[in-house]
């Protein structure tokens, strides 16, 4: 995470006092970090897989409202169907090959270790500064995940008939739970629900949610919630802390606020900011 963030910051030197689209930058950063973490030395191959997954995401989003006739779809394939089938097969093959290689490396004892000591130090430093500052990084992250949840809904299949208030939900029904709707419900969050206010989390989740802690679920809930929670939060904190040590930034006048869903919530026209190098005052 640290090495990839450093590479990104090195690139940013060319953009000092200029406009840069941080949405593109963070896309590159996160795919590089996950590729290196998941695939180790094969991370370039991993990045290729993420590019293919991004393409799949576009195909899925573009086809989500297409009506399919059962059976006929098997014989009549659109160019999107053919492309996504090819992508799926290539991704599956690459994964299988990499897993085999990793298995062999593990047996030979060739897999890298991680710099855990430095991580421990960094996170401890953050936990300490949380205590003293009014707005902590966790509050900012939570508020961003509340207002702009990357996953706009989670689904569950109901195993047996249940009653939810006045509604009876029959068995086998698929229920879509809208993260967006719950995260923006004024009865839970208050009338300022549409404002970006990290301080709403200052006194904990129960206070922020009017005692409905399950109303905040950017990573889903229950035994099948996201396995990448700690990974993503750590990644955000590491990258942000490294960025903020070097830069202050303001939104560029060219920025147009337009969140859209392309499998995950994304800024349609990017996020253009102006980077100002930060020179900390010596005490
Ligand atoms: C900000 C970043 C992320 C968000 C907001 C997010 C959100 C989610 C959500 C809402 C779910 C569905 C959970 C549910 O149905 O209850 C999910 C599932 C999952 N996520 Fe994430 N995720 C993020 C990053 C990651 C990362 C970095 C990884 C991998 C390292 C990851 C791996 C997974 C997996 C494997 C599942 C399926 C879990 C299961 O079905 O048991 N996620 N994620």
Automatic annotation (TrEMBL):
<dbReference type="InterPro" id="IPR002401">
    <property type="entry name" value="Cyt_P450_E_grp-I"/>
</dbReference>
<comment type="similarity">
    <text>Belongs to the cytochrome P450 family.</text>
</comment>
<keyword id="KW-0349">Heme</keyword>
<dbReference type="InterPro" id="IPR036396">
    <property type="entry name" value="Cyt_P450_sf"/>
</dbReference>
<keyword id="KW-0479">Metal-binding</keyword>
<dbReference type="Pfam" id="PF00067">
    <property type="entry name" value="p450"/>
</dbReference>
<dbReference type="GO" id="GO:0016020">
    <property type="term" value="C:membrane"/>
</dbReference>
<protein>
    <recommendedName>
        <fullName>Cytochrome P450</fullName>
    </recommendedName>
</protein>
<dbReference type="GO" id="GO:0005506">
    <property type="term" value="F:iron ion binding"/>
</dbReference>
<keyword id="KW-0472">Membrane</keyword>
<dbReference type="GO" id="GO:0016705">
    <property type="term" value="F:oxidoreductase activity, acting on paired donors, with incorporation or reduction of molecular oxygen"/>
</dbReference>
<keyword id="KW-1133">Transmembrane helix</keyword>
<keyword id="KW-0812">Transmembrane</keyword>
<keyword id="KW-0503">Monooxygenase</keyword>
<dbReference type="GO" id="GO:0020037">
    <property type="term" value="F:heme binding"/>
</dbReference>
<keyword id="KW-0408">Iron</keyword>
<keyword id="KW-0560">Oxidoreductase</keyword>
<dbReference type="GO" id="GO:0004497">
    <property type="term" value="F:monooxygenase activity"/>
</dbReference>
<feature type="binding site" description="axial binding residue">
    <location>
        <position position="226"/>
    </location>
    <ligand>
        <name>heme</name>
    </ligand>
</feature>
<dbReference type="InterPro" id="IPR017972">
    <property type="entry name" value="Cyt_P450_CS"/>
</dbReference>
<dbReference type="InterPro" id="IPR050665">
    <property type="entry name" value="Cytochrome_P450_Monooxygen"/>
</dbReference>
<dbReference type="InterPro" id="IPR001128">
    <property type="entry name" value="Cyt_P450"/>
</dbReference>
């Amino acid at each position: 995470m640290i090495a990839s963030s450093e590479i990104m910051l090195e690139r940013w030197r060319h953009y000092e006092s200029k406009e840069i689209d941080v949405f593109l930058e963070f896309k590159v950063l996160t795919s590089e970090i996950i590729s290196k973490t998941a695939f180790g030395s094969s991370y370039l191959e991993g990045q290729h897989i993420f590019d293919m997954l991004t393409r799949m995401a576009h195909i899925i989003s573009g086809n989500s409202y297409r009506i399919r006739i059962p059976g006929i779809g098997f014989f009549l394939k659109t160019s999107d169907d053919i492309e996504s089938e090819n992508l799926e097969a290539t991704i599956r093959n690459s994964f299988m090959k990499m897993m085999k290689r990793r298995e062999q490396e593990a047996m030979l004892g060739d897999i890298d270790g991680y710099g855990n000591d430095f991580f421990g130090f960094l996170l401890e430093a953050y936990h300490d500064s949380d205590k003293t500052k009014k707005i902590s990084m966790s509050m900012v992250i939570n508020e961003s995940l509340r207002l702009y949840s990357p996953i706009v809904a989670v689904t569950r299949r109901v195993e047996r008939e249940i009653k939810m208030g006045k509604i009876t939900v029959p068995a086998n029904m698929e229920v879509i739970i809208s993260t967006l709707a719950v995260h923006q419900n004024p009865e839970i969050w208050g009338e300022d629900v549409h404002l970006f206010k990290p301080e709403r989390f200052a006194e904990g989740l129960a206070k922020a949610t009017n005692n409905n802690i399950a109303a905040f679920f950017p990573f889903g809930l229950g035994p099948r919630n996201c396995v990448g929670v700690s990974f993503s939060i750590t990644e955000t904190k590491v990258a942000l802390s490294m960025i903020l040590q070097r830069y202050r930034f303001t939104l560029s006048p060219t920025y147009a606020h337009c969140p859209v869903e392309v499998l995950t919530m994304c800024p349609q026209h990017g996020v253009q900011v102006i980077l100002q190098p930060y020179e900390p005052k010596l005490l």
